What we know:
Blueprint (H helix, E strand, L loop, with lengths): L10 E2 L10 H7 L16 H21 L6 E4 L2 H15 L13 E5 L4 H12 L3 E5 L9 H7 L4 E5 L13 H10 L3 E5 L18 E5 L10 E5 L28 H39 L3 E3 L10 E6 L4 H7 L3 E2 L1 E2 L1 E3 L4 E3 L1 H5 L4 H5 L1 E5 L6 H20 L2 H7 L13
Parallel strand pairs: 1-11, 3-4, 3-5, 5-6, 6-7
Antiparallel strand pairs: 2-8, 7-8, 9-10, 10-15, 12-15, 13-14
Helix pairs in contact: 1-7, 2-7, 3-4, 5-6, 7-11
The protein binds pyridoxal-5'-phosphate (PLP).
Amino acid sequence: MPDLTTPKLPIYLDHAATTPCDPRVVEAMLPYFTSIFGNPGSRNHRFGWEAEEGVDKARRQVAALIKSDEKEVIFTSGATESNNLAIRGAAIMYEKAPEGSGKSRGHIISCAIEHKAVLDPCKRLQKEGFEVTFLDPPKDGIVTAEMVKAALRDDTVLVTLMYANNEIGTINEIAQIGELCKSRDVIFHTDATQWVGKMPTDVYADNVDLMSFSSHKIYGPKGVGGLFVRRKRPRVRLTPLVDGGGQERGFRSGTLNVTGIVGLGKACEIAGQEMAADAIRLGKLRKKLEDSITSRLDTCQINGHREKRLPHITNISFGFVEGESLMMAIKEIACSSGSACTSASLEPSYVLKNIGVGDDLAHSSLRLSLGRWTTEQEIDYSIEKIVTAVKKLRDLSPLYDMHKEGIDLSKVEWAHH
Ligand SMILES: Cc1ncc(COP(=O)(O)O)c(C=O)c1O
């Protein structure tokens, strides 16, 4: 029996955007604001050494989660910076011809449904003389090794593809792509922001050279993240974005965000212990959410591959409802819609558009992402709320009436005024 008592409102189903900080993480961070406040770069006194010990411990905690060597972990301000450092840093370091030579500086492979924090650094490099292939994803959203193989060229310097998509949760063929890149001596970066801390990660098994991740997606604080930079076979070099004191092996100068780093470390330790159980529990809750909605409502679709995706994210489009009205009707549920606010207008999500979801359906899509403290009661409540809202909106829709009468709306000749 579903539990229909009202949970505490609003309900947070937007964990792919950010997660609350785990209280155990906050507890680990607290001493680093006040008593252990030293600069880890201060080599001459205890204050510095203690801060450095905190950072070292965090580095070990991160490395344990992603199965790397601790020396390969570079701390940054988040996945956006990690992506910029990896993409720009590698492209410029491994360029085939210098800027201004009139020749192509090298070729990069990415995909049209990457996060903006990957697309935009790639586009900037394009303006600066690199050639970029943005792969066109198939309907299921999954980039395969075959697709990458077909796009590889002799002058390809970098392949950058996300581990799992932030809007639809689909998982790319990372291990196969890693193997392919290794066999062709091409640097392989993956934006694993939605993957690390949720699913088992093994950078060597996947033949990844560079991997970005972020603390605030895994119950750690905001404004801190990391980049795995491989040190052996090959030893990856990067041109830094920020020069200065030479911290983080010279890849990222600036006094370390010690409290944030300690929090990220603790978040990784907890993830290592709890992510397997979380994934099973959240997978069951998502199944309930999807099954209930799709069995009680017609004309709705789940976007992206049904199996090869993260267990805690679903993206559902509802036909015959208007996106804004739907969001208004389910205000108590904090989630993302398939519309992105640009300066002037509401644009349909480019991710959904690129996997072939039409503009109307993209606008009336919801991304619901579950997290560590999502309860069954919250899911039951959300199901009722969404189903009721969609039914109500459809009751007002003449198009839905026509659809139910069996009229093929694509063949209707509308009067133009
Ligand atoms: C796939 C992906 N990459 C990068 C980012 C940016 O991460 P951060 O907020 O740590 O800069 C996000 C988060 O929005 C993301 O989902």
